[in-house]
Amino acid sequence: MYALIIGAATAILAAQSTPQQFAGTWTAALAGKTYARLELHESGGALGGRVCLGSMHFDRSGEVSEVLETSCTFTPIFDVTLRDGVLRFARRDDDETDRFELRATNGNVLMTFVFTDAVRAELASQGIADLKPVRLTRSADR
User: Fold this and answer.
1) Where are the beta strands (DSSP E) in the chain?
2) What's the CATH superfamily of 19-138?
């Protein structure tokens, strides 16, 4: 029984995400147009970086359906925390703060937009219940 408990604890610890798992350059594209780029670097066990989001359109199911503009400006990320396998971070967009969550899955990461109640209400008024996570793939230039 003791060996079973030790084995289970080891498996749980091994499955937990590490900063190195998230470090690198991640992108999302639709029809050959990149609309998201996230650059994460690890230093001393902490993550930092920057993000660039183009302009995109979401369909009623919450999926990116069209890339309106690929060009964007990188902004630094802050409030970076990694807990329970979820990497959370924020970025400043003019006078607003956008928040995101990343979850590692099969060599990719899923980026979820974390919205305020006001933004959720605005999306709902457009017939969008919630946005789906965006799948980011690691670029070769890690």
Assistant:
1) 24-30, 33-43, 46-53, 55-58, 64-69, 75-83, 86-93, 96-105, 108-114, 134-138
2) Pab87 octamerisation domain (2.40.128.210)
